[in-house]
# Entry
Amino acid sequence: MKKILTIATVICTFVLFLTACTQQKTYEGEDEFGRTYGEIYDVDSQPTGVFDVPYEISDTSAMGKAMIAANCADYVEIEKTSDGYLLGFLCKSSMLGAVKMIGADGSYIDGSESERDGYQAFTFSVTREMLENKISLQCEVSAMNKTVEFSVMPDLDGAILAG
# Structure
């Protein structure tokens, strides 16, 4: 039992070290509306924009939370357009595969996949109401060849203008 606790402690320490070593995103300049990149804005008061929004991870184990924190951006990207909202979940390339959003009815919703800011981005169309609740995701963890489910809860009060 003592050996297992020691191994778990070493793993957790390593994960926290990796998390601390992640690169911080820098913001510079202003957009065409005179808004300053890197400043916190109320998403609802803005006509359009791309925002980096911190989120809370839930509906998974402590190990799952640590793995997501170590391998994914510490923000989700929310793009507000005249047509609605897009949610981007960003992870280190090749860490996660086949990320899907789980709808309220339990159905799986495929999104689009792209490369963005050194991350593999999985983007989904969402409603404003969805952004106020937990957003359930399912993904394959490439290294473990395992499918996992978890939720993210965007903190819209911390929306940072990114583009």
In short: The helical segments are 2-20, 62-71, 128-131.
